[in-house]
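## retry 2 of 3
previous attempt timed out at serialization; input unchanged, resubmitting
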Amino acid sequence: MTDYDVVVAGLGPTGLTLANLLGRRGVRVLVLEREPEYYGLARAVYTDDEGMRIFQSAGAADELAAQMNHDSTVQWVRRDGRPLAQFHQMARPLGWPVVNFLYQPYLETTLERALSRYPEVHVRRGREVVGFEQDATGVEIEHHASGGSGYGTRASESGPGAVERVRAQFLIGCDGGRSVVRTHLGIAMSGTSYPERWLVVDLKARAGVDAFRHLPYFDFVCDPALPIVSCPQPDGHHRFEFMLRETQSKEEMEDPDTVRGHISRFVDPDEVEVLRKLVYTFNAVVADRWRIGRVLLAGDAAHMTPQFVGQGMNSGVRDADNLAWKLATIIEHGAAQSILDSYETERRPHAKAMIDLSVLMKNFVSMSNPVAAAVRDTAIVSALRVPGLGGWIKAAKMKPAPRFRRGAYLGLPRRGWAGIEGTLAPQPQVRTYDGRHCRLDDVLGPGFAVLGAGVDPRTVLADDDQAVLRALGTRFVTVYPVGGRPQGRPGDGRQAGVADVEDHTGVLTRWLRRGGAGRGGLVLLRPDRYVFGVAAPGHGGALVARWHRQLALPAVAPRSQEVR
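## retry succeeded, writing output
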C-alpha cells in the first residue's frame, strides 16, 4: 500500500509540468516544495515549439501562449546595433511558434493553477525532503517543515514540527541544481563550471511608459568590450545581461549606479523599474546517473544548461514529458519498470547536445579579443552568402533535432536514414469532417494513438490486437489525404469509435509516406508523440505484438486510464 503513486520534489517548471501531465492521467501525486512562498521573479525567458506542444499535452498551452511574445527575430548585432545575422523561424512543424519569450512568474502561476483541476494532485509548500529509503515495492520519503532558502540565497531553514513520512511507488527529484534527492543518492555531476560572470538585470517599464518599443528583437550584442544580451518579454518586461571583466567585483556590478550606467546605453533609466539585479556564473554539467531504482532525477537536478540558447527550462520540460507517460503506464497499466531504463538513454544525448550548443553560443557571442571578434564577424558575413549554408544558419538548423539515437529508445528500430521511428511526429493543423481546423494532438488525446493512412486502423487489426490497444486507452485515427474522404451513398464514411481527419496541408500524408506508411499502413505513436513503430499494410499485428512485448504489459491491464 502507498499513500501516493508519485512524489515530486520541487515545484519549478519541471515539477509543475510533470504534476500536470500525471494528474491528467489520473495518477496520485504529492508535490513537496521547500520554499514556502512563490519566487515571483523571472529566471527562464524562452520556450520553443517542443515546449509549447508539451504544455498543450498538459492542457495549458493556449492560456500560456496568450501571455507570451511570439515569433521574435533573434539576431547577432555589432556594438553599434547593426545586425550581423538574423534568425527567422516562422515555420510551425509542431503546431506552435518556434520562438516564444515568456515571463516565468506568469508561466509558473498558470501551471500551478492548472493543478487544481486534478483532485489526485496535492501540493505542499514549505516542506523539504530530508531523506528517503526504497525497497522492492516503493519509496519511503521523510520531509519536514522548511522556512526555505530564499531560492538559493541562504542556507535552508528548518521549520517547527515533526518529520512526516509518506510512501509512494516513485520519487522524482525535480529540486534543481542543488538537488537534495541527487545528493542523497550520492550521484555526482560531470562537466564544466565556467568562471565567466554575468550581471542579469530584469526591468519593468513604469506605468504609462512605452520604454522598450525601440528594442523589438532578441539581441546578442557581440561587442568584445562588453558582450550583452537584450531580451524582450511580455507586458513591459525586459532583460539585459552584461558580461563582467575579471577586474570587476560582484558588489561593484550590482551597485545601483553601475546598473544604471549599463542600462542607460539602451533605455532611459527613469522610465523603468529594476526588478532584479544579480551576478551569476553558469554550469554545463550532467548527472552521472538519472535513476537508481524507483528514484529518478529530472530538470536541473539531472543537467544544468548555460542560458545562451534558452534551453535549460525546456530540457526539464522534455524530461517531464518523457517520464510522465512511462510512469503512468507502469502505475495504471502494469507495464514493467524496465521501460524507465529508456528515460536516460533517450533524454541524456539530447540534453547534452543542448548544453554543447549553449557553450558554443557562449563562446561565439562573448569573444573579448578584438582581433578574434573581427575574424568572427567577417566569417559570419561570408557564411551567410554561401548558398545553402546561409539558409541553414538563418533557420537555426544547428539546434539538436527531437530524434532519439539509434538503438537507445523505446520503440522499433529506425529503418534507414529517412526512417521516422524514434522521431517526434509533426503536428499540422488537420480538418475534421465538419470542416473545422484543429491541431493534430487535440484529436490524438494524451495516450497512445494509431494512425491509419487512408484506412480505419481497426479494419486492418485483429480483434485481439485492438483489445490490447484499447486496454491502454489508445485512440484510433484515420488520416485522409485532402479530397480523400469517403463519398457517395448515405452512411458512407460513418465510423463509430475512431476519429477521422483530413490532411488539408499535405504535411501528414507526406510524412506518413516517407516513413513507410503508404495507404493502408499504420503508425503507432507514443503519448509523447514520438513514433514507436510503423507497419506496412498487412503487418499491423506484428507492430502491436512488439509494442506489447517492449512494454511488458500483462494480459489484462489492472486499471483503466482516466483522462480529464
